[in-house]
Amino acid sequence: MPTVIVSGILTVGMMLLGAGSSAAADVQGPATPTITNVEVKPTSIQLDFGADDGGLPVESFEVYATELSTNEQVYQASSDRPGRAGIQNLTPNTAYEIEVRAQAAGTTATVAATITTPHHAPGHPFIFAKAIHATAVELRLNEPVADFIPAGQEGIGPISQYVLDIAARDGSTFERRTVDVPQESYWVDGLTPNTRYLFILTAVGPGGDTSNEHSFQTPPASPSVSIETVTRDSITVRVTDGSATAPGRVRLAAAPAAAVDEITYTLSLTTGGVTVQTTQLARPGLHTFAGLQPGTAYSVSVRASNQTASSESTALAVSTDAAPVDSDSTPGASTNVDTGSGSVSTASPVVDASTPSANQKRTDVLAATGSEAPMSLLAIAFALVGVGASTIVLARRRLLRS
Fold this sequence. Notes:
Number of helices: 2
Radius of gyration: 56 Å
Strand order of the largest sheet: 1-8-7-4-5
Largest sheet: 5 strands, antiparallel
Strand content: 35-45%
Order of helices and strands: EEEEEEEEEEEEEEEEEEEEEEEEHH
CATH topology of the largest domain: Immunoglobulin-like
Distance between the termini: 169 Å
């Protein structure tokens, strides 16, 4: 409340009593006026006016307001009874003299007060989270804007500084910073993953303090995933909690209690850009993707989520083992040919190039003699001799029987 300086002045008229007499007598004036219940705002002053007990009954009251720096009268009102005066459209941070006059029986009693209007309180600054990460947040800090003054606030007062309070969601502040405003990108690092925060931006000025706030929850830290085993038709992975490593900017002096929400882990398996399996884990651990195709490239990704936010995904590439080569399809093995009534097994002979074949030996002998034709005639002659000998033996057996 501004200081109110009150002073009173009593004006008394003189009466001449009796003919030829110069004696003077005191004449009673009106009751002394009063100024009470003063309410001062940057652009208005309200007060009650009245009179003390005693003196003549007040016939009328007059109220005046004068700006002292210019000696300009900015308000005048009159009333035949006590009441309340509302002086509007004043200038913030300006001294005014308020005067109340009470009149009775041609005399006037006056009381005056000097009142200085205060500054406007600062307008509400703006704070907004542009990007929220597990261990950091990027803020946008703006000055108050006259077009967005809340109802009941008459203007924007001067601002001496801006203060940023970083608090846990329950309001317990653990760090206060003086910041420059406006800033399109203001980073706060060293946050705790999976934690609710309350950021309060306050504009401080001679007319008071005005605040605005923004609350949010950081996502969990990104989990990690590693391969345990791989077969032809399955992949087993291990999910591990992420580490809370913040970028190397200014870190917080303290931290609130972490882990306010339960975390779920979402695993996804994709191939060729298509998701083929998805599952959720209530806690870190092992999971097996089964029923997969042999010799196929897959991507495994995992992210952690709380009630309001999710971490960035972590992914790795892995391929299932190829199917073994079928032995029935190797060269030299028998091949089943379906004939309709069954299968016929045909075998391809295995030729050992290090052991000459019978035909090869025969060819070598012929090559050594220089010609194949004489050998053929000789074979025919031996064959004929053999036939003749067989005929003689048969004829001899018939003669003996007869």
